[in-house]
Amino acid sequence: MTRSLKKGPYVDLRLLKKIEGKKPLDTGVIKTWARASQISPEMVGFIFGVHNGKNHVEVLVTEDMVGHRLGEFSLTRKFVRHGGQMQKAIEAKQKESEIAAAQAAKASVSDKAKK
Hints:
The chain is an alpha+beta fold. The protein is 33% helix and 12% strand.
């Protein structure tokens, strides 16, 4: 979602008021519903609780985030893995092979220690 240069960046004024004159380390989480607000350089170091529709996701603002929107860092959809029964069987087989490899390595170390 772009914004024309003549309009300038959109930064929510309420957010700027909340951080005005405060130090990032002293303030806790600043809750906000303004997902469309762009991150300005004054916000660097603050922790914002950005609402994702269900709860507030904590976002620590860094210098790399300046110019992006707050909503980009608080995902609204939760990814549910695909696969079902077949995927579970593959994961179980993989776990068993890892356990077997660990036991074999442990046995070889104990054999060397005996010699």
